[in-house]
Recover the amino acids of this structure.
């Protein structure tokens, strides 16, 4: 029952891009993600108000033309805080995904290439990490090493490692029996070279899709940690922290809780749509099924 | 089947052992002297030394590790410094809140997600599918604690139907207790239901393309019967996998959700213990949670074999 190897031919990049933008999910996700990224970048040079400037007279203002999302208990403009908070969310999630990829992908590729006890050890390591509810361990890590954006990144990053290791391993395992890999081995290429030249380029799309999903999960995790007071510390605004502050004022100022939450939802939704779209475009097998 | 189970139990046991070493090691490297924490800054060196001796802190690390494990297995989780009561009592007091909460949430999410997923798959591409998957896509993106805040605003502040937080204790009666758990359970369940509905739909779609489904329909079996009996059963494997994984998310979710609603559950206990450096409580609760994840995954593995007879032979 041997599987007939199908040569993997990637379509030319230009047509892939055209296909991608014809995909509604990808397009919507791309636009949302681009807008959020633009907002984060813009916040470095301009925000509607200076949030380091506390104007007590303007505290707890409901949304108006001047302050479209209202002001908080210090009189800070919530729109400006959301803009600046987006930097923190994005930075934490990006670096956490980076850590996960940088450690997990080589591990997964190594396990697939080496097999045997290395593979077995990696899978058991994965079992252990997955047995710890991720947020619980993140809470432990940040509580031990102190709250703050950097420790939040590490805590979230650690849980991305087994995810990427698993995806890379599964992808690599399916490629090793392929003919072109066999040919490369017959030609005397080493496992490292084969992994770099043949395996990695062919699992890159899977990793990209997973990266988008983990990015979205990272944003959610960061929001959860900073809601618990374990993420970015005040005065640095973060979406989760804003929600925590808003909670006690829910009765008088519900808008303070609405907008930071919407920011999280829109960002995560955008990334998920982008990931779904990417998967549709990059994985033709799944596309046929839809 | 026996070999399959033995292997899974073995893996579960290894996971637990490694996890216990990790938990013990992490808390071992923590800065801060538990004896000092317990006695306060003004303790005399003699009192400190006596306390360290009494707490067994002078023993070598492997001895303490084995002593801790032996205690856990005997149900002795040690004594909390901050609550000055046995950890096992603290856990038992809170399990009666967290366990019902998790079970209600799991039931809710399954009861919503599986029918929605099947419905969507059966009407792929039509309005019902588009709308429910749109809602699911949105649900995946909603942080559960934000959803919890919205629920509190609508049902507690505005409609005044349900309490905004706190727990009266089961002593106050079943209904007041349940009432306090409704909003937290819904907040935990909906984002999970969104994920589960998506997985159910795609698993169903995969199965509905199989030959035996066409055969069953061609034999004249009613569509509904084919959908619920043939297709669902075969689609259960990925659905069960995700449900197993979600259990761990659910446990983690209780840390945040119990904080939102001020529920005296395990999540809040462990969070407070971490912030107060009450290590012995943290160790005990974390091990309990990890063990429950391992057990649930074992149950999922057994269910695989129940759902799919092929797995019983293949092992």
């Amino acid at each position: 029952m041997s599987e007939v190897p199908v040569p993997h031919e990637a379509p030319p990049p230009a047509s892939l891009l055209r296909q991608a933008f014809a995909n509604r999910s990808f397009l919507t996700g791309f636009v949302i993600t681009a807008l959020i990224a633009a907002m984060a970048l813009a916040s470095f040079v301009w925000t509607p108000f200076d949030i380091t400037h506390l104007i007590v007279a303007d505290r707890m203002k409901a949304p108006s033309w001047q302050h479209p999302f209202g002001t908080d208990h210090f009189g800070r403009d919530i729109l400006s805080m959301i803009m600046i908070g987006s930097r923190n969310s994005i930075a934490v999630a990006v670096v956490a995904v980076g850590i996960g990829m940088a450690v997990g992908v080589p591990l997964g590729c190594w396990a697939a290439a080496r097999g045997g006890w290395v593979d077995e050890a990696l899978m058991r390591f994965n079992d252990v990490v997955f047995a710890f509810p991720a947020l619980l361990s993140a809470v432990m890590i940040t509580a031990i090493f102190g709250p703050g954006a950097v420790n939040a990144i590490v805590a979230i990053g650690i849980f991305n490692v087994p995810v990427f290791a698993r995806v890379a391993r599964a992808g690599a395992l399916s490629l090793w029996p392929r003919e072109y890999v066999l040919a490369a081995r017959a030609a005397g290429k080493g496992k490292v070279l084969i992994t770099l030249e043949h395996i990695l380029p062919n699992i890159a799309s899977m990793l990209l899709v997973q990266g988008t999903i983990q990015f979205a999960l990272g944003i959610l995790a960061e929001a959860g940690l900073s809601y618990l007071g374990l993420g970015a510390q005040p005065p640095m605004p973060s979406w989760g922290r804003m929600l925590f502050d808003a909670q006690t004022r829910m009765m008088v100022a519900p808008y303070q809780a609405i907008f930071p939450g919407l920011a999280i939802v829109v960002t995560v939704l955008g990334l998920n749509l982008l990931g779904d779209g990417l998967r549709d475009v990059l994985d033709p097998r799944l596309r046929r099924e839809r | 089947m026996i070999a399959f189970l033995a292997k899974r139990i073995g893996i579960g046991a290894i996971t637990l052992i490694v996890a216990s070493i990790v938990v013990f090691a992490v808390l071992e490297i923590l800065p801060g002297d538990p004896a000092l924490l317990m006695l306060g800054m003004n303790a005399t060196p003699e009192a400190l030394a006596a306390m360290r001796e009494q707490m067994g802190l002078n023993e070598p690390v492997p001895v303490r590790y084995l002593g801790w494990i032996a205690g856990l297995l005997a149900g002795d989780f040690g004594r909390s410094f901050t609550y000055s009561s046995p950890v096992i009592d603290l856990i038992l007091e809170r399990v009666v809140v967290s366990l019902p909460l998790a079970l209600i949430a799991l039931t809710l999410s399954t009861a919503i997600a599986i029918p929605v997923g099947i419905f969507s798959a059966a009407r792929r591409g039509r309005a019902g599918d588009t709308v429910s998957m749109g809602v699911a896509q949105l649900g995946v993106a909603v942080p559960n604690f934000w959803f919890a805040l919205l629920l509190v605003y609508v049902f507690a502040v505005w409609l005044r139907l349900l309490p905004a937080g706190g727990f009266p204790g089961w002593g106050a009666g079943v209904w007041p207790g349940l009432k306090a758990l409704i909003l937290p359970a819904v907040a935990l369940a909906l984002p999970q239901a969104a994920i589960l509905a998506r997985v159910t739909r795609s698993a169903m779609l995969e199965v509905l393309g199989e030959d035996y489904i066409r055969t069953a329909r061609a034999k004249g079996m009613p569509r509904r019967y084919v959908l619920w009996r043939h297709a669902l059963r075969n689609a259960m494997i990925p659905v069960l996998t995700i449900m197993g994984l979600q259990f761990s998310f659910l446990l983690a979710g209780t840390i945040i959700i119990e904080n939102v609603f001020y529920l005296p559950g395990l999540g809040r206990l462990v969070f407070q213990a971490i912030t107060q450096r009450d290590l012995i409580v943290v160790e005990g609760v974390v091990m309990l949670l990890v063990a429950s994840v391992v057990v649930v995954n074992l149950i999922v593995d057994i269910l695989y074999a129940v759902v799919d007879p092929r797995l019983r032979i293949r092992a």
